[in-house]
Amino acid sequence: MTERDDDGNDGRERIAKRLSRAGVASRRVAETMIAEGRVTLDGRRVTTPATLVGPGARLAVDGREVAEPEPPRLWRYHKPAGLVTTEADEKGRPTVFERLPPEMPRVLSVGRLDLTSEGLLLLTNDGGLKRRLELPATGWLRRYRVRVHGVPGEADLDRLRRGIEVEGERFRPMSVAVDRQQGANCWLTVSLREGRNREVRRALGALGFDVSRLIRIGYGPFQLGDLTPGAVEEVRPKVLREQLGLPPAEPARAGPGRAPGAGGGGKAGGAKAGGGANAGTRSEDGAGAAKSARGPGRGGGGRQAGPGRRR
Question: Is 226 a residue of the active site?
């Protein structure tokens, strides 16, 4: 068993990366699983995440075999308020992954939305794709509809447009526009390219405006559209390839449509440049590393279950 500090040039890759690409867990969680002695390669316990895995190797977690990674897939999900974007919550609050349709494969979230935030959350079966979409270098625009209490003036908004420092942390310039003032409340559209933890809420709070509703309506080319709360829809493989430059390989199996009971919805793929929910139903996040995995492996020798909550 070869161990090196980087991926091999002969089709092999680091075992933590393979587990992540297979949707078992994020690389960080996979490294913890390895340290706990839960991972084997060709029947031998793995001791370091730098271990290289080649094609055809027998990889298992907790004695259950991990299948070869499937082609990358991506879903749009309309996260309702009141769900946390983690695999399990220490306070027992409901998670996003508990509310997905049972026919969904194990997925990871791309970034996250906090408990009270709503709107577009991207989900993928591929840890490598998740990491790629979260990297700051990707620079994809995140768009939000935000309701605040108060009457923001141009001087306030200009501070956000120039970039603002909050508790010693410097936020990059944001694009901010007033949509409408409704009595004591104001709806804004805020766009940014970073997505730090609670960035929109913290920036507006520093100006003295409390955020009462926050809905993400766009993440790069992917839009919330008219996807209803709780609904999930797979991005068409062709759209995914065109937007991300992926090789022309169709997914192994068709993904599920909307969640049962979810009403009408946006166009499949949801990668239109504009669009967005109505102001009354529109959304921040911290696009940080969201740990997340869908419950145990499916029948028929499916992938090894990650550390996610079991159904």
Answer: no
